[in-house]
Amino acid sequence: MIELTVIIPSYNMQAGAVRAITSVLAQEIPVAVILVDDCSQPAITLPPAMADNSAITLIRHDTQKGASAARNTGVRSCATPWLSFLDSDDVLLPNTLKARLDIAKQTLAKGTIDPVNTLFGCGWVEPEHNGRAARIRTPRGASTPAQFASGCWYNPGSCIIARHEVYRDRPFDESLSRMEDLHWGIAFGLSGGQLLVGGPAGVEVLPSNQANLQAVEKSAAAIQRGYASLKFDCPDVWLTLNAYLNYEMTSYAAREGKYLKAAMRMVRSLMWVPRFHRHLSPGWDYEPLNE
Predict the structure, then answer these.
(1) Which of 49, 74, 92 is a domain's end point?
(2) pLDDT for 11 beyond 90
(3) Structure confidence at residue 192 (pLDDT)
(4) What does pTM read for this prediction?
(5) Fewest beta carbons less than 10 Å away: which of 9, 139, 174, 267?
(6) Is 241 domain-assigned?
(7) What domain range includes position 50?
(8) Is residue 67 part of a domain?
(9) Residues 250-269: what's their mean pLDDT?
(10) Which residue, of 63, 92, 121, is where some domain finishes?
């Protein structure tokens, strides 16, 4: 019986989508795949062997709706008790999914944690990039709302396993064009959510240089408006959120060569949460890939 569905949202990533699906089919357990084509031009097509595979479902949006809508479409179509997401520019590492799912199932079987408030994360491989050696990056766990407001350090787009109802009952905000994972994570943290990390590194994450400062600024403003009540209800979460949003805008401004704006945003981030390091999240542990 298939217990887990991998949802792959994709837009104009024909080769990446096929590569991602191939990595899922190569796992040592049967897995269902839902590929959501967010109105790619031209439409994503599957090779005959994939198109004839009953475990693979291809859903195409008639109009481009964004990553949040693509994920929501996948979640609504999911028929298994467990699910995971995989970005179409990432791939699952061979023979890792069973071990990760087994850990999640065994942890819940103990009956000591709430299944609808738990994410199971894993580390990922970062290949050689810009002179940096390949390495494994493993996120640290989290259990407080402020931690989930500090960013998406745990790579929820490719590196989580969760019960279906975790996402079925908490859809992504489809009005956001960026940082939808952060918005979702804040709500998850405020409802008592936790991130547990264990098992093997499960994904190879390819470098992405997409930068759109305008879209990030728009989404950041929407998130601030949507969570404005935190200013009084959870001031520590509000401070952390604003520090992170400004740090994120720092990164995008720097990528676009807007260095003065980047410096100003970094100063604002430090004003919200004074610190001697850039990141606010629980962070990561690193391991050289070949050791």
Answers:
(1) 92
(2) yes
(3) 97
(4) 0.95
(5) 267
(6) yes
(7) 1-92
(8) yes
(9) 96
(10) 92
Percent of the chain with pLDDT over 90: 92
Rounded to whole angstroms, the Cα distance separating 18 from 44 reads 9
Could you tell me if residue 258 is inside a domain?
yes
Tens digit of each residue's pLDDT (9 = 90 or more) over 140-184: 999 999 999 999 999 999 999 999 999 999 999 999 989 999 999
The count of domains in the chain is: 2
Beta-carbon contacts of residue 1 (< 8 Å; ≥ 6 apart):
none
Residue 66 forms part of a structural domain? yes
Cα 106 to Cα 103: distance, rounded to the nearest angstrom: 5
CATH of the domain at 4: 3.90.550.10
